[in-house]
Specification:
The chain is mainly beta. The protein has one helix at residues 2-18; strands at 36-37, 76-92, 95-112, 117-128, 131-138, 145-166, 171-190, 193-217, 220-229, 232-243, 249-254, 258-262, 265-273, 277-286, 290-291, 303-312, 326-335, 346-357, 363-373, 382-397.
């Protein structure tokens, strides 16, 4: 057992140290602010539109609500890794462009420390900046136009330490300490001259969660959850570097720091589960963030998001492998935190998936999602995307010695 725990821990450290976490796909929506904010959790609930706030279980490592960790079985050590790919088509009037990305989007590990205390560590992207835009602009003092190329990359990563305490058999509380860090690079090329802007940030944040579970009857359970996220401020240290057409440095400057304030957030979830069917729904709300920089072109909006998901097993007592597969479906609706040209775009996503049992209580989770972000209007680019998510939830038993080696 110790060898497997050591191997999982080593994999976690290597992945968290080497992966940037972001989905590196060209997305015009990531031009402003801190980029695209992560919209999915993935893993065991990817096929349910990640409606997971009120879900918990002996083999379920739920990092959306830290309070849920206390329901992990005391003999289980869980390691989760999620890989996702996304194919997008961006449409604007009669123009369209395609893009593709694939990356590891979440890794987490956790287990119970004692009868009432459990914990986990997770790593995932918080936001992504990734775009490439070509635009002709008028040369100052003339009627001629030159091609300007605008590129952005990077984003903010989230490394979290979670813990959960079971107060009673029905009520659990949890907390999450988050370290948010990253670098955002923005490059503008005009007639061979490159203007490179780099913004570096790091900050701490925290959230707390509550989970209540009770039986409605012998075959039906009810769960309810609340999650509160503290506000924080990203302070960016900015530098600007200008290179001439031959790549020589002709100007370097440390610009004044800029700030983006992330307000408090709240989430609520409720679920009902039986022997074969699970229904779950989540609601999130966050006040609009504010930019403390001089960029008056950035405007933000209150964000609301609702996730709805269900999962079912064909028969109560499976007689073969296919009858033991859990089938999932989900729907998600939200609005963007950005206001573009006076319009606040909406996002919609439909998902379906399956949880495939593998050795022991481990699972392979496969999910497919179709989504649309934005609407086709003047100045608004619509994105239609198809996402495939593959998650491995590996469960190992602690404190149990095998009879044979």
């Amino acid at each position: 057992m110790m060898k497997i725990k050591t191997l999982f821990s080593l994999i976690f450290v290597l992945l968290a140290d080497s992966l940037c976490g972001q989905e590196n796909i060209d997305s015009p929506a990531s031009v402003f602010g801190i980029g695209d904010i992560q919209l999915m959790e993935g893993g065991r609930t990817a096929g349910m539109a990640s409606a997971a706030l009120s879900l918990s279980g002996s083999y379920f490592l739920n990092t959306t609500n830290p309070a849920a960790l206390s329901h992990i079985d005391s003999t289980n050590f869980i390691f989760d890794i999620v890989i996702s790919s996304r194919k997008s088509q961006f449409s604007y009037r009669n123009l369209s462009e395609k893009a593709f990305s694939a990356n590891v989007t979440r890794i987490a590990t956790g287990f119970r420390f004692s009868k009432r205390l459990a914990g986990a560590v997770s790593f995932k992207p918080y936001s992504t900046v990734s775009y490439h835009i070509d635009k002709y602009i008028t040369k100052e003092g003339t009627d001629s136009k030159v091609l300007g190329e605008y590129e952005g990359s990077g984003g903010i990563n989230q490394l979290s330490l979670l813990n959960s305490y079971k107060i009673t058999n029905k009520l659990s509380l949890g907390s999450e300490l988050m370290y948010l860090y990253g670098t955002i690079n923005r490059t503008t090329e005009l007639e061979g001259v490159n203007i490179i802007k780099e913004s570096v940030t790091h900050t701490f944040s925290f959230s707390t969660g509550m989970l209540y579970r009770d039986k409605l009857n012998d075959n039906l359970d009810l769960s309810a959850a609340l999650v509160y996220g503290s506000g924080n401020s990203f302070r960016f240290k900015n530098t600007m570097n200008i290179l001439d057409i031959e790549g020589n440095n002709i100007f370097f400057n440390k610009n004044a720091s800029s700030d983006i304030k992330i307000p408090q957030s709240i989430g609520a979830g409720i679920s009902v589960s039986g022997s074969r069917l699970l229904v779950s729904t989540d609601y999130y709300f966050r006040k609009k963030m504010s930019s403390l920089s001089d960029n008056s072109g950035i405007r933000f909006a209150d964000t609301k998001k609702i996730n709805f998901g269900l999962a079912f097993i064909p028969v109560k007592y499976p007689a073969n492998y296919f009858e033991a597969i859990e089938y999932q479906a989900g729907f998600s609706f939200s609005n963007s935190y950005q206001i573009q040209n006076g319009i606040n775009p909406h996002n919609v996503e439909v998902s379906a998936g399956a949880a495939l049992p593998i050795r022991g209580n481990s699972q392979l989770n496969l999910a497919f999602s179709w989504g649309r972000r934005g609407i086709e209007r003047t100045g608004i680019i619509r994105e239609d995307y198809f996402r495939v998510s593959l998650g491995f939830s590996l469960v190992d038993r602690m404190f149990i010695r095998s009879l044979y080696y």
